[in-house]
Amino acid sequence: MRFISFESDGEASYGVWQDEKSWLQAPGDFVTNYPDLKSVIAAGQLSQLAAATSDAGRVIQADSAMLLPVIPNPGKIFCVGLNYKSHVAEMNRADSEYPAIFIRFADSLNAHDAPLPKPAVTQRFDFEGELAVIIGSGGRHIAADQTWDHIAGYACFMDGTARDWQRHTHQWGPGKNFPKTGPLGPFMATPEVIPDVNALTLETRLNGEVMQNASVANLIFTLPEVISYISGFTELSPGDVIATGTPGGVGDKRVPALYMKTGDVIEVEITGLGTLRNVVEESKV
Questions:
Q1: Exposed, middle or buried: residue 117 (CB in 10 Å: 0-12, 13-18, 19+)?
Q2: Is this structure's pTM higher than 0.85?
């Protein structure tokens, strides 16, 4: 199934994605018990949500509502840097024995089709298309061969980055955490929909021109390795988000460099996960 979070009539809700034009809202009694998609995941009720929504869900027209980040309120957002050899090479970095992990804040997330604010303090606003993993059941010290049982689903992610702020010091956090610079969506697809992650292809387009194209099979640190590693230093919880890294082709390393500007359309498309699309606008902050 494909699940979404959205706002309709001024209230946050969630349900099932049908297509770009219409969605199904979870029934009221289901929402009473589980106020958001994260709580559904935590209770292990995704299958029940799908059944209840199929039976009694209200049709929502996309033009009368707006999507939210598929998980609007994750407890933790982890991002993996330098996880494709093509990106390691263009960044002129050495191979690493362990995944490079940095953190995003929840308020840095954004939604499909929402305006993407270019921070006013940078002219080096770059794109990074990525596959995101949403944690289902949490845990510590999860063995790599058990990690598939801990995944609720997958989504597209766009790691909008202020490159100058990223490089003020050796800590990447400032360049990665401007508000609403990390769109996540449009929906979360469950593992039943995506049985083989390595078969997925990721493509990032800027104004229709392909910037990045890679197979997820080319990840340096695989999903099991990343999940196991992260759970070794902190407890993973339902609804946590892991962005698994971007392939080569980022704007910062093109000659000449190519950064996002006001009016640009950035799209991240992944096999089976739809197309995450945003239009860049100038932020006042």
A1: buried
A2: yes
